[in-house]
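Thread: quick sanity check before group meeting

JM: Hey all, I'm pulling together slides for Thursday and realized we never actually wrote out the predicted structure for the chain we discussed last week. Dropping the sequence here so it's in one place. If anyone has concerns about the input, flag it before I start.
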Amino acid sequence: MAAHNQQSDPQDSGNRIKDPDDWTTGDEPMTEAQRSYLHTLAAEAGEEIDENLTKAEAAKKIDALQQKTGRGQPTK
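JM (edit): ok, ran it. Output follows.
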């Protein structure tokens, strides 16, 4: 029987997704990947995107638009 590797356990606190407000680089401008995905989500949701969002703000907006559009949600 193989030993359980704690470091690869997705329930391990070290693997939890960090709140964007706690990101050390959260105040930097959003990445190009975030910008592209935001435009895709915004088009589907019929919304406009502020081009001057920070990384943290973009992450929060992505979460909100995923909720609105149903993208990024776990499949049942």
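AS: nice. The radius of gyration is 16 Å. Residues 1-12 have pLDDT under 50 and may be disordered.
JM: adding both to the slides.
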